[in-house]
Design brief:
Length: about 425
């Protein structure tokens, strides 16, 4: 049976019992853990052979396959530990991936807005079921893996702020501001004046409401704008630019435009911090199921693709940090929280939607644990002497932010050799 050979190639340790729609049993592997994969109609077998990377998730969403003896997370952990399998159609698509990738990641402004609305215009109530209290929908930072999700997301904002060294009155741009948490943090904790831009009307409404409720509407402004159109009217305006979890939606064909826009919007002493998902194993392609159902137009790049575009933009890379398993831990929290509130999510949407999110959160966590995904924080500057010469200032700034802050307090940038002269 061809499907048995495909599953055997994909599977890592443990025993997988396959039960077909006709009731035939096939045992694959030996030892613990032991799971059973049940196919509920005959067409599933054909679909998995043709394109397992797309059709496996679809079959789970539709209830055409199920797992006994564990969860979909357990099954994916078993299957993602072995060799990646493509299937007949998958192999054909993979051979064309260099050409298809440019089409899949072609994100002009209208398509970018549609892509963002597909995922981020889900209701605020849904995201509140599993995110932290500040609604940070990006990788948290875990100096200690026993930290709560709320504390780890606070640590992420603090870690980023320390790298930016904002000061009271500085003009800061947040590209892809989400529900406004990072922008509000910078305004409250550093005294900066922050503009946040997003392509999600749902996120925009929430961010504006939060700014009003926090009493920060005079220092934080949110707009529904694409970074490309925004850059045309804001040349040299910003002291700092931050972008958290947005770069994955840019697409390789647009990297040059993106970094040119960042350069143009920074003033001569400006600094930018880009926080995004990347891959450690070189350029690739987005999983077809993720591309279809979760992040259309999205792509997590290799650093070789990112840094080549940075070099052409006349920006300087002044710091680079790789966060390896931090997103795996973040997704573990989200997955457990989603599971605890699954019935509430089902009332907001439906069973198929819940199964889609179960598959997404499980597969995403395992991509970071098993398949070389990571998060990078890339610091950029227009001038080499803008920031201190050693990274000590980042640690010192984080310590300051941990200390008691008033709403008007700010970080004191360390003096550079140029400023001391």
């Amino acid at each position: 049976m061809l499907l048995v050979h495909l599953l055997a190639a994909a599977k890592g340790d443990g025993t997988l019992d396959l039960v077909t729609a006709t009731g035939r049993h096939h045992s694959i592997g030996a030892g613990p853990p032991k799971l059973t994969l049940r196919l509920h109609d005959r067409a599933v077998e054909r679909d998995l052979l043709l394109n397992p990377r797309l059709n496996f998730g679809e079959a789970y969403m539709d209830g055409r396959l199920s797992v006994d003896g564990g969860t979909i997370y357990d099954l994916l952990a078993m299957l993602m530990s072995g060799t990646e399998v493509q299937g007949a159609l998958g192999r054909a698509a993979h051979s064309l991936s260099p050409l298809l990738r440019r089409l899949q990641q072609y994100n002009p402004m209208r398509r970018s807005r549609q892509n963002v609305e597909h995922h981020y215009n889900l209701s605020r109530q849904f995201y509140q079921l599993f995110l932290d209290r500040d609604m940070q929908y990006s990788c948290a930072y875990f100096p200690d893996t026993s930290m709560s999700l709320d504390d780890a997301q606070e640590a992420k904002k603090r870690h980023i702020a320390a790298k930016l060294l904002p000061a009271p009155g500085m003009q800061v741009l947040d590209i892809g501001c989400g529900w406004g948490g990072m922008a509000l943090y910078l305004a409250r904790r550093t005294g900066a004046r922050v503009t946040g831009i997003t392509l999600s009307s749902e996120q925009l409404a929430v961010a504006r409401q939060r700014a009003q409720e926090a009493g920060l509407a005079d220092r934080v402004n949110f707009e529904l704008r694409d970074y490309r159109e925004f850059a045309a009217n804001h040349r040299g305006v910003f002291d700092r630019i931050v972008s958290v979890g947005m770069f994955e939606h840019v697409g390789v064909p647009h990297y040059r435009n993106y970094f040119d826009a960042v350069r143009d919007m920074l003033n001569d002493d400006g600094v930018a911090l880009i926080h995004a998902i990347g891959r450690l194993d070189g350029p690739g392609a987005t999983n077809p199921w993720i591309r279809k159902y979760i992040f259309p137009g999205g792509y997590s790049p290799a650093l070789s693709e990112v840094l080549a575009a940075v070099e052409r933009s006349a920006l300087f890379t002044t710091d680079l940090e790789i966060l390896r398993l931090h997103y795996a831990e973040t997704l573990r929290h989200w997955r457990n929280r989603f599971d605890a509130h699954r019935e509430e999510a089902k009332k907001l949407y439906d069973e198929r939607f819940c199964r889609m999110w179960e598959f997404y959160l499980a597969g995403a966590e395992l991509a970071f644990r098993l398949q070389g995904h990571m998060v990078f924080q890339l610091q950029l500057a227009r001038t080499l002497g803008t920031l201190p010469l050693t990274r000590d200032y980042m640690v010192n700034a984080e310590h300051e932010l941990v200390s008691a802050f008033t709403g008007s307090a700010g970080l004191r940038p360390a003096r550079t050799p140029e400023s001391a002269a």
